[in-house]
Amino acid sequence: MSEQIAIIGFGEAGQHIGRGLAAEGKVRVAAYDLRHAERQLIDAAADAGIALKDSSAAAMKDAAVIFSFVTASSAADAARVAAPHLTAGQTYIDFNSVSPKTKRAVADAIAPSGAAFVEAAIMAPVPGPNHKVPVLVSAPGAADIAGRLNAIGMKIEVAGERIGDASLSKMLRSIFIKGIEALMLESLVAARHAGIEERILDSVQKTLPGINWRELAAYNLERTYAHGKRRAAEMFESAATVAELGLDPFVTQGIARRIQWAHEQLKGVEFSGGKPTTYQEVLDVLEAKLAADKRQDAAE
Asked: How crowded is residue 207: how many other Cβ atoms within 10 Å of its Cβ?
């Protein structure tokens, strides 16, 4: 592989994967993010040995491969911005959690540049495995890029030759994973409102003892707090995927709406240490929000 990889979108996934690749020492990594001037991103890039640029064009210059890690709603727009600065010989890989239809729209945006397009789907949480997180890719000739990326330490598997093969697996898996998150939210918020959340968790623990449900509740509610906007957008894309298959995505739309609701309630809330460490902290905030809304409704 050539000397440089560019990362467009230096959020959680971009930072962890970029850090892992830079640590391998087989490639140089450059990155760009709309928030590139923020101290947190500047420090994260410097700590990882990544060159943080002030434009996507600067990050992509001399890069053999470009990784897109933006939001689901921005995937096509990011590709349209990147396309005029891409050339034949480069490969643009979209890692965003979007439907097969959206992946094809991204591919169409890249096509006039002459650069190759590959879609990718991250199939597990990125923090921890970093660049070794399992990833599916699909595109004509996807086996070639999989071999090149695996040679620099990544864990890439080919899902198929068609654009959409990888994202289909990702979107349908997300219904399951984010569905558990949404079920926990709805059940525990209602149970907290009734003052019986511990009883509910005790009962679930007895019925399904193979999982520590309190630990999972703490993890899921923290992820909703930290990444609710992105996770809700992903689930709306999952709903679009179900609709593309000719099915009514009424459950998936509900998952998206519940996570989006929680994000709106938790937006701007500050926890000691920067994030919640227990499910009780999140439930207390949501209960306080519900109580305040009830008082406002009564006043009106």
From this structure: 8
Pick 4-163's CATH classification: 3.50.50.60, 3.40.50.720, 3.30.70.100, 3.30.830.10.
3.40.50.720
Distance of alpha carbon 224 from alpha carbon 232, whole angstroms: 9
CA distance 119 to 254: 27
**Calpha distance 200→204 (Å, rounded):** 6
Q: What's the chain's Rg over C-alpha atoms?
A: 21
The confidence score (pLDDT) of residue 294 equals: 85
User: Phi first, then psi: what are they for 83, rounded to 5°?
Assistant: -50, -45
Q: CATH number of the domain at 171-293, out of 3.30.420.40, 3.40.50.720, 3.30.43.10, 1.10.1040.10?
A: 1.10.1040.10
In order of 64, 183, 223, 228, 259, the CA distances from 220 in angstroms are 36, 10, 5, 10, 11
Beta strands 116-122 and 134-138, pairing class: antiparallel
**What is the distance between the alpha carbons of residues 107 and 37, in angstroms, rounded to a whole number?**
29
C-alpha 274/C-alpha 98 separation (Å) is 29
Domains of the chain: which residue ranges? 4-163, 171-293
In a 3-state reduction of DSSP, which class is residue 2?
A: coil
- Give the pLDDT score at 2: 52
Run means of pLDDT, 10 residues per run, the chain, 300 residues: 86 97 95 96 97 97 97 94 97 97 97 98 96 98 96 97 97 97 98 97 98 98 96 96 97 98 96 94 96 84
The token pair that represents 106 in the structure block: 């991204």
Classify residue 274 by its DSSP letter: G
Closest to 31 in 3D by CA, of 58, 65, 12:
58
Predicted pLDDT at 223: 96
What's this model's pTM, rounded to 2 decimal places? 0.92
